[in-house]
Please model this.
Amino acid sequence: MSRHRSCHRRIARGPIEAHAIYPVSVFVNRLGIGRVSLTALRKQGLELHPIGRRLFVDGGEAITFLRGLWQTDVEPLNPI
Model:
């Protein structure tokens, strides 16, 4: 049983890559966020794509979305 668990953890680790599609559970684990944070991201515009009964996140869309979100959160420094 512990072997299965560590295998799952190993699969869930790592960066979000632009050319990959992730099940929501893997995406959440890779970002280190919870379901509440995922819901907040969805309300801000993150798209999830259904395939059958499962939801997936496109890595490229997620990276673009998160970078855009971070750009709006950061205020430019005004040295004057």
About this structure: The mean pLDDT is 85.
